Amino acid sequence: MLQHKANICSDEPTLTCRLCKSVSHVPGVTALDVWKVDFPSNFVANECKAAVAWEFNQPLVIEEVEVAPPQEKEIRIKIVATGVCQSDLYFLSKCSNQTAFPVVFGHEAAGVVESIGPGVTEFQPGDTVIPLFMPQCRECRLCKSPKTNLCVNGCPLRSFERSRISCKGRKLLQFLGTSSFSEFTVVKEMSAAKIDPAAPLDRVCLIGCAICTGYGAAVNTAKVEAGSSCAVFGLGAVGLAAVMGCKAAGASRIIAVDINPDKFEKAKVLGATDVVNPNDHSRPIQQLLQEMTGGGVDFSFECIGNVEVMRSALESCAPGWGVSVIAGWTDMENFSAPPIHLMTGRKWTGTLFGGEKWISASEPAMVRAYLDRKLMVDEFITHNLRLEQINEAVELMKNGRCIRAVLSVSPQ
Ligand code: NAD
Ligand code: ZN
Ligand code: ZN
Question: Which positions fall inside the Enoyl reductase (ER) domain (predicted)?
Answer without folding.
Answer: 55-407
